[in-house]
């Protein structure tokens, strides 16, 4: 996540960090509608994993919950892991170690949001 944070900060993005899935859900819930454009969600986190956090965000009663872009970040490169992540409501899937070009490509796919 450090590479992603570095790239995004240099591009002028405001970063909201969460150390686990529960914190990620709470941070999104506390944000203003439309304030969060992209969530980079680690799959393997303590307290609540990224897929459960994604499901919770997607079912929130707010207008941007189904539209916010959620990109999985994981060391797991297996097809079944990607399938599970996408079924949980994630929009995209990037493997670690993260390459800056892959992050930029993924973000550019959603820049209209």
TrEMBL record:
InterPro entries: CheY-like_superfamily, Sig_transdc_resp-reg_receiver
Positions where 4-aspartylphosphate occurs in the chain: 42
Tree of life domain: Bacteria
Record keywords: Kinase, Phosphoprotein, Transferase
Molecular function GO terms recorded: kinase activity
Keyword Hydrolase: no
Functional description taken from the UniProt entry: May play the central regulatory role in sporulation. It may be an element of the effector pathway responsible for the activation of sporulation genes in response to nutritional stress. Spo0A may act in concert with spo0H (a sigma factor) to control the expression of some genes that are critical to the sporulation process.
Organism: Blautia obeum
Domain Response regulatory: 1-111
PANTHER family assigned to the protein according to its UniProt record, in alphabetical order: HISTIDINE KINASE (PTHR45339:SF3), HYBRID SIGNAL TRANSDUCTION HISTIDINE KINASE J (PTHR45339)
Pfam name, any one: Response_reg
GO biological process, one term: phosphorelay signal transduction system
SMART domains to which the protein is assigned, alphabetical: REC (SM00448)
Protein name according to UniProt: Stage 0 sporulation protein A homolog
Coiled coil, from the record: none
CDD domains per record: REC_hyHK_CKI1_RcsC-like (cd17546)
SUPFAM superfamilies: CheY-like
